[in-house]
Amino acid sequence: MITGEVTPFREAVIELTISGPAGSIAVQCVVDTGFTESLILPPNVVTQLELPFVNNMPLVLAGGTEKSFPAHFVWVDWDGEHRRVLVYKADGDPLVGVGLLKGFHLGIDWLDGGYVTVSRITT
């Protein structure tokens, strides 16, 4: 299970360990259920980890416009698994999208300091 908390800014945040050729770091990521891909990281994290560039890839933004972003591969420790995922480089907060949440239950207690839990769905 992955745990986190709700910030005073009403964001559900979890900490992930992200790895690349230059090592590993812990990153506080905002859970964004409107983001259909796996992960967005800011340029400084992509540079620090020396993540390998794949290509410029299009994403459809919230307003419906399409924009191209640099895409890289990264390793994420996700509920005990070491997953290789495609990450988009963009300014702003690191974001976890539903691409990583697929097959998991997301629980959020919407109050300052509330619990955030991400747990594997078992059938």
Characterise this structure.
- The protein is built from 2 helices and 10 strands; from the N terminus they run E-E-E-E-H-E-E-E-E-H-E-E.
- With 123 residues, the chain is mainly beta.
- The protein has a 6-stranded mixed barrel with strand order 2-3-8-4-7-6.
- 24% of the residues are buried.
Topology:
Blueprint (H helix, E strand, L loop, with lengths): L1 E5 L5 E9 L2 E9 L7 E3 L1 H7 L3 E8 L5 E13 L2 E9 L5 E2 L1 H4 L2 E5 L6 E6 L3
* Proportion of helical residues: under 10%
Major beta-sheet overview:
6 strands, mixed, barrel
The total of beta strands comes to 10
Model regions low in confidence, pLDDT < 50 over at least 5 residues: none
Determine the mean pLDDT.
94
Question: What is the terminal-to-terminal distance?
Answer: 16 Å
Radius of gyration: 14 Å
Strand content: over 45%
The gross shape turns out to be globular
Q: Can you count the helices?
A: 2
What's the assembly state of these chains? single chain
Structurally, the number of domains stands at 1
CATH homologous superfamily heading:
Acid Proteases
The CATH architecture comes to Beta Barrel
Would you give the CATH topology?
Answer: Cathepsin D, subunit A, domain 1
Structural class: mainly beta
| Strands ordered across the widest β-sheet | 2-3-8-4-7-6
Q: What order do the helices and strands follow?
A: EEEEHEEEEHEE
CATH class: Mainly Beta
Short note summarizing the structure:
The chain has helices spanning 43-49, 98-101, and strands at residues 2-6, 12-20, 23-31, 39-41, 53-60, 66-78, 81-89, 95-96, 104-108, 115-120.
